[in-house]
Every structure is written in structure tokens, then in C-alpha cells.
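Researcher: Here's a chain I'd like modeled. Treat it as a single chain, no partners, no ligands.
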Amino acid sequence: IFWGGDFNVVLDLINSNKITKDDIRFFLGYSGWSEQQLDNELESNAWLVSENIYNNEIIAKSCNSFWREKMLELGGEYKIWSNAPENPSYN
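Model: Modeled as a single isolated chain. C-alpha cells:
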């Protein structure tokens, strides 16, 4: 998921009560790929790609349970991933 934008606009929306904490979610992190790297990884099935059936409702989903729910929903070989710890070294 990627959304970009002007942080000052977000602050204005919050300060003017046009959006609430329930309308927005922030994620911190970085991912980067060299040219064609992501395409190659997708071709080799290194990523699990699924449809976003939630549309804008994804913002309201609980961060704590989203991964687990999604893996259980996919079922089959992905079901075991639903119990994976946040930090794989804790396994």
C-alpha cells in the first residue's frame, strides 16, 4: 500500500476536524527495489499478492489482527502463517 501527500495538509484536516484519528493511519518504513527487481520477485512468486476486498474499510481494520485474519482467510498453506510472531526470531 502506498499513499503519498503533503503532511501539512493532513495537519490542517486534523486541526479543522475534517478528519479524525479513525480516518487516517500512518505507517513508518521503507522499501526499495532496483529496476525490474519487484517485477522479477513477483514473477518468481516471492510475494503474496491478494485482492483488497476491503476498499477504504482497510483503514478501520485492527492493526493487531489484520495479518492473522488475512492469512486465515487465504487458508491452505497460508493458514500456518497466521500464528507467526511479529519478530520471527521469537519463534
